[in-house]
Inverse folding.
């Protein structure tokens, strides 16, 4: 089993920045994809960004000029640097993990709340 714990959420003004962290523990595999997803009240969960164990990155179009996803494999931690945040990006942000060949299912963290408001 894979356990994911997010941190770094909070209240920020429009145009501000936050950095989210996700630490992985438990049974993990070398070939994997991690990502950040978010879910606003009353809306479906949507992809924000993903990063593979090899470093391949994908961003949602809405965030690719402002957000940066990264991972520190020795620390088993993934990050999301969010800049120039917008009010409509208020959501619970979730960490996701999926093995490519083994553990081929989604594992989710508990989420961390990001509120963008003046």
């Amino acid at each position: 089993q894979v356990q994911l714990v997010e941190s770094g959420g909070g209240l920020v003004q429009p145009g501000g920045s936050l950095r989210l962290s996700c630490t992985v523990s438990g049974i993990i595999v070398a070939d994997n994809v991690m990502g950040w997803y978010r879910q606003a009240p009353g809306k479906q969960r949507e992809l924000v960004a993903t990063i593979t164990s090899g470093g391949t990155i994908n961003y949602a179009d809405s965030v690719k000029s402002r957000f940066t996803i990264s991972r520190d494999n020795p620390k088993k931690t993934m990050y999301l640097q969010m800049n120039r945040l917008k009010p409509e990006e208020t959501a619970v942000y979730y960490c996701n993990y999926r093995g490519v060949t083994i553990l081929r299912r989604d594992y989710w963290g508990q989420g961390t709340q990001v509120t963008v408001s003046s």
Notes: The first strand starts at residue 2 and ends at 7. The two ends are 40 Å apart (CA to CA). The CA atoms of residues 30 and 61 lie 28 Å apart. The chain is about 0% helix and 55% strand.
